[in-house]
Amino acid sequence: MADGEKLIYTVLEVLISVGCCLGNVLVIWAVWSSRALKQTTFCFVVSLAVADLLVGLVAVPLAVLVDGRLKTSFHSCLFISCVLIVLTQASVHSLLAIAVDRYLRVYNPLRYRGAVKKQHLWIAVTVCWLSAAVLGLIPMFGWHKENTTTPENSTITCQFISVIPMSYMVNFIFFACLLPPTFIMMLLYLLIFTMISKQLRKGVGRGMASNSFYQKEQKLATSLALVLVLFAGCWLPLHIMNALNYYYTNIEVPILAFHIGILLSHANSAVNPIVYAFKIPKIKMAYKSILMKLTSSEQMAEQSSQTWDNNGSTNSNNTVRCTMKIKPQVILTANQDH
């Protein structure tokens, strides 16, 4: 890749990283501070936001470094590359947990409310991250490319493809760890929409509370399904290019296309907070509340500083006036003594 293309790629990665950090911090803050967002699903939304935040804080800077800009030991490079995979898997598992949670909530609402407790959610989130770590760190335990370093030359130019084998990325990560969960999630959302539409048809002329529940579930499921579609749309191109490169050696995918695929996969982590803002009213209201608090606190700080300045100038004026009143009396007293 030419120097100009490298510069554009790096600038875009920096912008994506900033977007990931700001947007997902806002999501986490919104869910944490709003009572209206205490549903179980939003616990998994926070898990996804944490994964997306770590993409901005960790994965994007590391991805830039493992693009041939860092000299390090083989196993250090291998660990850095594995961290990128772990964060991807954490996103997949969080999305799967969201889909399962939505399905169970719609399938049997009454039993779901009574059975699912907070400790169950924390256990599910922990399982998501532990399973992601296990799957992503497999190369550290042997499934990696040959270590070509020697005692005399113990460092390599760190590149993802120089330590992670395509057999692992294509056969295991893509075909076993990405495609099956994606198909399962699509099936779950299809079942969710089918059940909701049936309940809404049955609910014509029945209680408004039941209809309102399923209408809200339909809107939320639509928004979360959109998050899934965006995830698939952003990640599948990169994995498809890896598969083409691995299975069809006569097909040469341009390096520029790979970099566009990488940018697209990272951009997915910055897009989710925008989707939440436009598609989920509760999160949108929480965003507005946070922004209003921030702006009001800034205005109060400005007003207090202005008040302080005004008080300071008033006090100085009063001091001058007092001095002017006292001085003539001193002069008169002096004349009377003479």
Could you walk me through the main structural features you see in this protein, from its secondary elements to its overall organization?
With 338 residues, the chain is mainly α. Helix content is 83%, strand content 3%. The chain has 10 helices and 2 strands. A two-stranded antiparallel ribbon has the order 1-2. The chain is globular. The C terminus is likely disordered.
Fraction of residues in helix: over 70%
Estimated share of beta-strand residues: under 5%
- Helix count equals 10
Structural class by secondary-structure content = mainly alpha
Tell me, briefly, the overall form: globular
* Integer-rounded radius of gyration: 29 Å
Number of E-state strands:
2
Strand order across the largest sheet: 1-2
Write the H/E string, N to C: HHEHHHEHHHHH
Q: Major sheet: size, sense and barrel closure?
A: 2 strands, antiparallel
Topology at a glance:
Elements: H1 3-33, H2 40-65, E1 67-72, H3 74-107, H4 109-115, H5 118-136, E2 156-159, H6 160-163, H7 166-202, H8 208-247, H9 255-279, H10 281-337
Antiparallel strand pairs: 1-2
Helix pairs in contact: 1-2, 1-9, 1-10, 2-3, 2-5, 2-9, 3-4, 3-5, 3-7, 3-8, 7-8, 8-9, 9-10
Spell out the key features of this protein:
10 helices; mainly alpha; 2 strands; two-stranded antiparallel sheet; 338 residues; 83% helix; disordered C terminus
Task: Explain briefly what this protein structure is.
It contains ten helices and two strands. It is mainly alpha-helical.
